[in-house]
Amino acid sequence: MSLKNYLFTSESVSEGHPDKVADRISDSILDAYLKEDPHARVAVETMVTTNRIILAGEVRGSEKVDDAVLERVAREAVKDIGYEQEGFHWEKAKFHSYIHKQSTDISMGVDASHNKDEGAGDQGIMFGYACRETEALMPAPIQYAHEILSSMAADRHAGKAPGLEPDSKSQVTLKYENGKPVRAMSIVVSTQHSPDFTGSELREYIRGHVEQVLPDGWMCSEGEFYVNPTGQFIIGGPDGDSGLTGRKIIVDTYGGAAPHGGGAFSGKDPTKVDRSAAYMARYLAKNVVAAEMAENCTIQLAYAIGVSKPLSVYVNLMGTGQVDEDKLSRFFMEMVDLSPRAIRERLELSRPIYAKTSAYGHFGRKPEADGAFSWEKTDLVDTLKKYF
After folding, report:
1. Is 299:108 a contact under the CB 8 Å cutoff?
2. Angle between the N-to-C axes of helices 67-81 and 18-36, in degrees from 0 to 180, rounded to the nearest 10
3. Which residues contact 339 (CB under 8 A, 6 or more apart)?
4. Are 126 and 301 in contact (CB under 8 A)?
5. Is the pLDDT of residue 31 over 90?
């Protein structure tokens, strides 16, 4: 019997969080390779710490993307986030690159040849999820946690909050009654700030963003509204804590409200099913919910390295379905091409669209004109309705 009344919490981190700085650099480098060659193979990891930017990974792509380009792209990413601090500065940080060519053992399994279709870039399981808790068909706690921080970041970039610095985190706890969110029980926001932007002024500033994001009447009690609980947050970003690519996988997806296969997204080209199949699973789940076939939908896809077809397609409508789950699973397995090549082509993933995915979630975003967030489209709804 499913739980009906409970509290659930999700967190988000801003683009200036050390791990997100690393994600942004990795995805910006991926975009640089895809601009030169849509079929580039990229797996780039970044580490950032006090005035250091370090790259590692494997690539197969245009030689135009040399060390000078890598350094320029990395510094521009940090500059765009807004780091011009003594301990981490886009221009003054030392840069190191240890990127090398992709393993031939990997490429021979992935490349299409003769009668062999393009294979998956690795084995693994990927999950997609959708629900009716928000207009974006995302779980409410993670969606609101993202929106609080992205709203604050928009102010900072527009010069409307000169006391804010890039590093921040949010945490939203919602009360669920009969399985649906009804109000916030606690809100936590920690944000890096200048020494003269503290106390009640900062608290009231953040309150405005929280109340703007939450539905009317959902604000938590004053005693459960926490702003910089340690007292101050002046030293932050990679100077306060090192950052690594791929360390915020739950922030990137569903805030813990749905399973995660374990693979990170940022810095990986779309032959890596860790990324592309997770996008496809979200696309399928969102279309199921948008077609009013279920209130909640979890989809798992499984792949083997070098094999084009998925090994399994699992569908769980969590007791809310209007159609048979086994039939829906067979439909996706037989009627939708879920090979890595077909996923890449259907969602048009071989474009330089990834830097903007690196913060505030890969899901629950609006599809953009350049093709970013194409996996959020609901253009499969009519097909599903006709078939079922």
Report:
1. no
2. 130
3. 117, 118, 308, 309, 310
4. yes
5. yes
Beta strands in 118-211 (DSSP E): 124-131, 164-177, 180-193
Residue 173 CA to residue 175 CA, distance in Å, equals 7
Residue 34 in contact with residue 352, Cβ under 8 Å? yes
CB neighbour list of residue 200: distance below 8 Å, 6 or more residues apart: none
368-381 average pLDDT score: 97
Residues 298-336: tens digit of each pLDDT: 999 999 988 889 999 999 999 999 999 999 999 999 999
105 pLDDT tier (thresholds 50, 70, 90): low
What pLDDT score was predicted for residue 123?
87
Rounded to 5°, the CA angle 12-14-16 comes to 145
* Measured torsion, CA atoms of residues 331, 334, 336, 342, in degrees rounded to the nearest 10: 160
User: HSE (CB half, 13 Å, CA atoms) of 384?
Assistant: 25
Query: Could you tell me the two tokens for 68?
Result: 């000078």
**CA dist 213 → 113, 116, 148, 149, 272 (Å):** 50, 49, 6, 10, 34
Q: Are 307 and 271 in contact (CB under 8 A)?
A: no
Dig out the tokens for 107 from the structure. 């490429």
